[in-house]
Amino acid sequence: MDIKTFLITGGAGFIGSAVVRELIQNTQHNVINIDKLTYAGNLESLASVENSDRYTFEQADICDAQAMQRLFETYQPDVVMHLAAESHVDRSIDGPAEFIQTNVVGTAVLLEAARAYWKSLQQQDAPKAEAFRFHHISTDEVYGDLAENEALVVKSQENASPLTTHHSLFTEQTPYAPSSPYSASKASSDHLVRAWQRTYGLPTLVTNCSNNYGPYHFPEKLIPLMILNALAGKPLPVYGDGQQIRDWLFVEDHARALIKVATEGKVGETYNIGGHNEQTNLHVVETICEILDELVPLKADEDVQASSPTIHHSPFTTYKQLITFVTDRPGHDVRYAIDASKIEHELGWVPQETFETGLRKTVQWYLVNETWWKRVQDGSYQGQRLGSL
Ligand code: NAD
User: Fold this and answer.
1) Interval 253-262 mean pLDDT
2) What pLDDT score does 144 carry?
3) ipTM above 0.90, yes or no
4) Residues 370-386 pLDDT 10s
5) Using CA atoms, how far apart are residues 123 and 129, in angstroms rounded to an integer?
6) Do the Cβ atoms of 207 and 271 come closer than 8 Å?
7) Edge-to-edge strand order for the sheet containing 30-35?
8) What angle do CA 372, 373, 378 make, to 5 degrees?
9) 125-173 tens-digit pLDDT
């Protein structure tokens, strides 16, 4: 195998750490992880690979042009995978400025550092310049809301379930129509990447993927929030009527897809990545409850004769009784769903997990990795900050 050096931005985040683990554990490639370690960066997600001599961590901000230039010159990467971003939609509504800075300005700074490095490669090492790739990782949220686009189509079927009335999917040709400051900032960064390819010839690839879930996901996100709230006997807050539809992708399937695109994808192309798992938010929460009912059964206090560590004493008999409907957030898209046929046909990638198998693995991971999530919840994971280099 042709051994490459991957420069990964945001490698201490949820998806980035899955990509780093996959590269170190299942390939021979080298990894340079560049991460600012914002609240979302957690080096404890990389404990299983941090001692590998093929892995290097550098704490740096992608908005810092000098630092980016130095890192490109020092490590001479073959592939850049750009995942660093502010990624939480609710936070973008409360404070959009940081999203513009990291997602838009940071991407422009990184593109310029990559372009300068790639130009120098063209003079010094033409085959390496020829093989260089800049892979930008983005979201299906740039396409906006499928349900809105289809409102006319479904008007006559108002009483039917959204899952049976909506049939179209986001393709690589779907026009951009972002709704939130987060998705607008990601859309901007996608346009910048394509402009650097069209204008300067930088060999770029873009992927847009659906909602990820899986191990090492921060407790503020829907699936871990529901698992951990349920285990703590707290309410399970569902926005609006819970009928918003998301297409769920197991993070390890996504990591494998990203590495395939970065190494085998065609320059200048966009690939959508999805898991064929359209679910309403309410169905997701109910399925988590069903898995927990099976794995960590609740037992009403009065029924408990002998105490058991696997049985939670509670006034409820199923976790579903914790579900609480809360006011929907502004601009909440009703439906996202992705057509991943291009990456399947052209690169031969298919997800290994169904929603049921992936969700079960995820719930089981949270049950046995209490130390990881407790240190995120109490903030002690941030003690691993190294200071700027
Ligand atoms: P995350 O928030 O878990 O991780 C982001 C990482 O980027 C963190 O480690 C953080 O410290 C780092 N970072 C933030 N600002 C930085 C900066 N200025 N310089 C260097 N590092 C910085 O995000 P994620 O969920 O892993 O998402 C990764 C990428 O995938 C993002 O670009 C996101 O838009 C995209 N994406 C995510 C999802 C999803 O479901 N999570 C879906 C589609 C696309």
Assistant:
1) 98
2) 87
3) yes
4) 999 999 999 999 876 55
5) 9
6) yes
7) 55-59, 30-35, 5-9, 79-82, 133-139, 204-209, 270-273
8) 105
9) 999 999 999 999 999 999 987 665 554 333 333 443 444 344 578 899 9
Half-sphere exposure for 144 (CA within 13 Å, toward CB): 11
Q: Name the residue type at position 126.
A: A
Residue 356 backbone zone (phi > 0: left; psi -120 to 50: alpha; other: beta): alpha
Question: Hey, which residues are catalytic here?
Answer: 140-141, 182
Domains of the chain, residue spans: 5-384
Q: What is the C-alpha to C-alpha distance for residues 41 and 20, in angstroms, rounded to an integer? A: 13
Pairing of strands 278-280, 245-250: antiparallel
Question: Cβ(314)–Cβ(301) under 8 Å?
Answer: yes
Question: Which ligand 1 atom sits closest to the C-alpha of 211?
Answer: 40
> Which residue, by CA, sits nearest to atom 44 of ligand 1?
139
Q: How far does residue 65's CA lie from ligand 1's centre (Å)?
A: 19
With a Cβ cut-off of 6 Å, ligand 1 is lined by: 9-10, 12-16, 35-38, 40-41, 61-63, 83-87, 102, 106, 137-139, 186, 209, 211-212
Quick one: CATH architecture of 5-384? 3-Layer(aba) Sandwich (3.40)
